Amino acid sequence: MTALFLSDTLVEQTGRQLLERDVWYGLSGLLVTGEAVARHLTAAAGLMERKGWDPQLYAPFSGYHLRDALTSTRDDGMGDADTQFVGRTVLEAVLRLSTGASYVDYEVWSEHPVRTLDEVLAVCRTAAALALQHGPGPAQAGGEVLDAGEG
Q1: Which end of the chain is flanked by fewer CB atoms within 10 Å, N or C?
Q2: In 3D, which of 49, 48, 52, 58 has the Cα closest to residue 113?
Q3: What is the pTM (predicted TM-score) of this model?
Q4: How many angstroms separate the CA atoms of 83 and 39, rounded?
Q5: Is the dihedral of CA 115, 119, 121, 126 positive or negative?
Q6: pLDDT (tens digit, 9 = 90+) per residue, 106-145?
């Protein structure tokens, strides 16, 4: 098994990367709040935890992985395509810094046979906390920030 190491320093480094404004634009071109992204990531983690979607128990493309949880929570109204897209960016920033790799696809990472549910949940919750802390709020940019996760 591969342990996920998320030190305070790595979380700080990831947070600095997330201060870039372009990180927070969704596929629709709207600026998404950190709160909306955090809500989507938290809901996906909660679903996986409640249902026991352990990556070691389910094969890739089985419908029981992080990508599927993000899609399911989007479909349930806990986010949208914008919050899912920005959530991916935040997840992958956390994974790049925690693994040291220059690129990590969160889907491939989460479906790897050595991955555990605890690792996936830790990344989701770390990404959600960073989104809340570093993402734009509704009052930023003179009220121009639109919370795409709140229809």
Answers
A1: C
A2: 58
A3: 0.84
A4: 9
A5: negative
A6: 999 999 989 999 999 999 999 999 999 989 988 764 355 4
